[in-house]
Amino acid sequence: MAPHVKNEKGRSSDLIAKNRRAQFDYDIEERYEAGIVLVGSEVKSLLNGKVDLVDAYASVTAGEMWLKQLNIGPFEQAKAFPHEPKRPRKLLLHASEIAQIDKALSRQGYTLIPLQLYFKGGRVKVELGLGRGKNTVDKRATIARKTADREARVEMVRHSKRGRE
Predict the structure, then answer these.
(1) Strands 4-6, 64-68: parallel, antiparallel or unpaired by DSSP?
(2) Distant-in-sequence, close-in-space partners of 22: CB < 8 Å, separation ≥ 6
(3) How many CB atoms lie within 10 A of CB 137?
(4) Is the pTM of this model over 0.85?
């Protein structure tokens, strides 16, 4: 089963999948939590971890929020009525949130991408991030910062081990 993750209110959630690439490719400015409309075989596939968030994105169409290009793999036992792996899936948000997101998406360079999928109270939720794509220079700066942090941690551990000897 997926690991338990504490949300901002301290309650436990079961993480299904996380889009690690999103933090590297985008500067996330705002986060939203949305419900997602699924069929039974999709939920079973999510329980088995058969999901890919990498190419997925969300958009507003006719006042409704849709998650597109989310790949939920087929559930083997649902051969009679299988689901389509990359079909658009409706997201459940308040109308005011959808209007706010639509206004933000109309600005140049902003996109809405799924950051993670998780179970919360028996329902599947998706965390969406409103972000602007990073350019190559920003990505290099992110890599340099992570490398410096990692080297500092290694050096601190090495220094603390010397102090004990």
Answers:
(1) unpaired
(2) 28, 53, 113, 114, 115, 129, 131
(3) 8
(4) no
